[in-house]
Specification:
The protein is an all-alpha fold. It has one domain. The chain has 6 helices and no strands. The protein is globular and about 40 Å long. The model has no long low-confidence stretch (mean pLDDT 87).
Length: 107
């Protein structure tokens, strides 16, 4: 991750390959998603890092909470609303393989 100076730089390179691996429309989700929501993840940084999740990767999974069908999962848990940062903690392992593959494509 040292090749990136910020999570914004990371996302501009890795987000599209990651979204493609999940079968999401990358024309809909990319620059606007990063610009509109990339700053909202700072509040979760400590929790993610305590759980062993690199901040850049946590932000990428966090952005899924704004993409269907994942946005619906966050809001329709059967247990009420789940904070997006907590959703990342619960679901990070679910996306780890796709994150690894997307990063390998750009390195």
């Amino acid at each position: 991750m040292k090749i990136f100076t910020s999570h914004y730089d990371y996302l501009r390179v890795v987000l599209v390959p990651f979204l493609e691996k999940l079968g999401l429309n990358t024309n809909v989700y990319h620059d606007g998603l990063i610009g509109a929501h990339g700053d909202k993840a700072y509040g979760y940084r400590g929790d993610w890092e305590a759980a062993g999740i690199h901040f850049y990767r946590g932000v990428m999974v966090y952005l899924l909470t704004y993409c269907k069908p994942y946005s619906e999962e966050v809001r329709e848990t059967g247990q009420g609303w789940v904070a997006p940062g907590d959703w990342v903690l619960k679901n990070y392992d679910r996306f780890k393989q796709q994150i690894d593959e997307a990063e390998q494509e750009i390195v």
